[in-house]
Design goal:
By secondary structure, the protein is mainly beta. The chain has one domain (3-59). It has no helices and six strands. It has strands at 8-13, 19-23, 31-32, 39-42, 47-50, 53-59. The strands form two sheets. A three-stranded antiparallel beta sheet has the order 2-1-6, with no helix packed on it. A three-stranded antiparallel beta sheet has the order 3-4-5, with no helix packed on it. Strand 4 and strand 5 (47-50) form a beta hairpin. The chain is globular. The N and C termini lie far apart (28 Å).
Amino acid sequence: MSKEELRYTLWQCEICEDEFLTDSKARHDMVWCECKKTAVDAEEGYYRFIGKPKLICEGNIKPKQR
């Protein structure tokens, strides 16, 4: 995967309201919120969710967390 194809996604846990960032370069890498009740695995072709993630933004440029 080239650098141009890398997809960043900013999520928020609807339980603890923690914001966390995923990218599409790491395979099978669940990124967890602070309360450990929500996680997202952002693969190149799909997302895998646990808990209640809310999509904040996504794109090829790394977003700044609030």
